[in-house]
Design goal:
Layout lengths: L5 H16 L6 H8 L3 H7 L3 H24 L5 H18 L6 H7 L6 H27 L9 H22 L3 H14 L6
Helix pairs in contact: 1-2, 1-4, 4-7, 5-7, 5-9, 6-7, 7-8, 8-9
Keywords: DNA-binding, Transcription, Transcription regulation
InterPro entries: Homeodomain-like_sf, HTH_TetR, Tet_transcr_reg_TetR-rel_C_sf, TetR_C
Protein name: TetR/AcrR family transcriptional regulator
């Protein structure tokens, strides 16, 4: 088992703090306390707080970009892809390991974010939307999904549904709300004759 680097510990700490408090709700002092390092050590790895937040976001984006690349390589089950994506968040919300998406939290603070971080947040959503568009297009081609609009529009609707479900689960203090909303959203994609 490989030891986690200090840099990765800082990123993981910042990820959790952003997920639970938002960008404006934490400081280097919070990260230093959690990771048990001096603030100077954090500045060594990440000169500015936005650099640390960008590193957190970059890890999330890298996963989406890799998944998109994998999809482009051949056959895949579009329903399974959507269920894996929503299932990941359902588990994270239920066990509080990732109670809200980092990009979602950062997007809610967009007007107050440094420009470079705001650009990365927007890029994250573009990457996610592109991935969803590929999955939905393939599902429609296979007759597994019935789209109400273009695949691009449906990707945006699906993404909004997932983030809205996260928000509703948080607002109600009930993780099961997420699963209920997502199940309804997935059912909406099912062809009319198969419902």
């Amino acid at each position: 088992m490989a030891l986690m680097t200090t840099q990765q510990k800082l990123i993981d700490s910042a990820r959790y703090l952003i997920q639970t408090r938002g960008y404006n709700g934490f400081s280097y002092a919070d990260v230093a306390e959690e990771v048990q390092v001096r603030k100077a050590s954090i500045h060594h790895h990440f000169p500015a707080k936005s650099d640390l937040a960008r590193a957190v976001l970059e890890q999330s984006r890298a996963i989406i970009v890799e998944q998109t690349r994998t999809l482009g390589g051949g056959a895949f089950d579009p329903e399974e892809q959507l269920r894996m994506y929503t299932g990941y968040w359902e588990k994270c919300i239920a066990d509080a390991s990732a109670p809200f998406c980092v990009a979602g939290m950062l997007a809610s603070e967009l007007p107050t974010l440094p420009t470079d971080l705001a650009q990365d947040v927007r890029a994250h959503f573009r990457d996610l939307s592109n991935w969803l568009e590929i999955v939905l297009t393939r599902g429609a081609q296979l007759g597994r999904f019935e789209l109400q609009g273009s695949a691009r529009q449906e990707a945006e609707v699906f993404m909004a549904m997932v983030y809205g479900a996260m928000l509703a689960a948080r607002a109600y203090g009930d993780p099961t709300v997420f699963g209920d909303i997502v199940a309804s959203g997935l059912k909406r994609l099912t062809p009319t004759g198969a419902r």
